[in-house]
Amino acid sequence: MQAAALCAFGLLLPWTARGQSCWHGEFDEQRCCVKNDPACWDDLYTRGKCCMGNETRRSRGDPTCWMDGYSYEECCKENPKDGCWDANFGPERCCVDKELNVTDLTVNVLEIDFAEAFGRILAHLNDDSDCEGEEFWNDVKKTGAALNVSHTFGQVGRPPNDVILKLVSKRALRWAQEPQTWHADAAQCPEGALAAVDLVISDIDRDVSEDTARTLAGLRHALAQRRPFASMQPWRTQDLMVEHVPRLYGLEGHHRCHGSSLRIYMYQLPQYAYMLKPVLRCSQKMSQCSASVHLHRWLMSGSCRTESPEEADLFYFPAYEACYNETACSSGDTERCFPQSFDPEELPFFHRRGGQDHIFVFACNLLPFMDLISIRTRNSIMVTVESFQAVNVAGPNMLAWLVYSKDVLIPGYIPAWRVSSMVAFCRPMIERTILATFHGHSRSSEKVGHMYKRSLMSEVRDRIISYFGQNSCCSAGPPVRDYFRRSGLSRFCLIPAGLTAWTIHLYEAFFFGCVPVILSDDLTVPFQDVIDWTKVSIKVPTNLTMEELHQKLLSVRFGTLKRMHQALKDARCWFDYSRGWGIEGQHENDCSPYNGLMRGLAKRAAAIKTSAHALPKYWEPSTG
Fold it and tell me: N or C: which end of the chain has fewer CB within 10 A?
């Protein structure tokens, strides 16, 4: 396969000396270099890279610095763009003109070992699919590998080609309807069959039905048991992107809910089924808000589930907010909602204990206290990532908070492919050259800054970026494409409040191995009964000056940093939602976020049994 063809599949190519790597389809050197058509260029394919000689070129500054949205013009000036500089990329290196052989350019200024890994995978792609017959298998291989290589570098990657996806979907639907066709194709090209299902199963779950997608997942799961991806490296596609599919579809073994004796009744009401679809898209969309999907499906496959309301300790109402927010929100300026047709008091067993034994999951933000549903569920158990939401300066009234005596705090969800890449970028503390890092949205963000201006909490982000973004010891600014590299090389990761008190940055720090420094006064941390947070993090007041914070970070001894780094690695399993299924969910001492949830629910259930508020909402004399 020609290297140029890879662009059509969204693959982020390492740069080579072959100018033809830029040219494919309607894009050629005449159109792009001679006529300078602006349609030729994007973040990856630039005029500076494509319109050069085959040997060397001169560039303003060091060309290896100008990726990820940064340029000489933006950085090498008196007031550089936020985020230009960190411990590895500074003006003394980047602003000095350098003659560079184009073969020296790496991928997205990432670690050299990742660039080499990228090259090895690319070399395999130049081969045919190893499957006899149709070009179909070559297309599957190229498309899937493009996504997989991007994931290796901690990036989502560009969407696959629509034409190819339609062809693969058509073939996959035939497999679901005619299993004999699947078996024939899987015999001819087992790696291709696995990769093809991975590419389209989420679309089929959304566009056709969960049953059809489950049939495909079952076929794939059976084949994967005989043909694991470990033996087919060049074919690897979205294996980490879809590793959750067999679990969510109930294709893997049941578990014992980490040994819990709780009995939980799971509501399955037809009138609210739309709040649970499409499961695969909901499980990864707005990924940090997707825990509600995984918690529900985990409980559905566990021994703690009961179909008898009489023996139930707790009642669980499932809803996937990452998806239903889109269809249920009314028009206007709002950031969260619950379907207006939903009334918790209409749930069949809600009045048994005034809603005290009912569980509602909010894996992104809580409903505001003034919302009617919040008022009616005020005694219920809220399983939530959020600890405090302040009143907005403008926009919807978000005021709500965690009630320690009845609610359960959980971590935000991080997809397995991101976890894998974060851990790969995690360096030993001795190799970390950046003191502190923060890259995220703030009031100055072009697209979402208006939202952060509403929140009084978010001003700390602006102070962090203003101070640490201009300090060569650190790296701070807006989101950057090499965020994983910077975090994996940082001793500390700054965790400021944003729109609300919680942020997914806190849990990412455990996988990056950087000590989280929390600047969110109202943030509460989960699983305090099993994690000693004083040994894995630092929390300081948000009114601390950035100069004082800088001195505090410099004063932490290296031996302390090494111990905290190890403690972070030991505790990260409590935040990994891919753990705790099947055999990993058998014992009470096994580590997973689901075990943390069950421990919290057990305490709430015990408190309910001894509560003085045991009467139903209404009662009358017996008729006997």
Answer: C
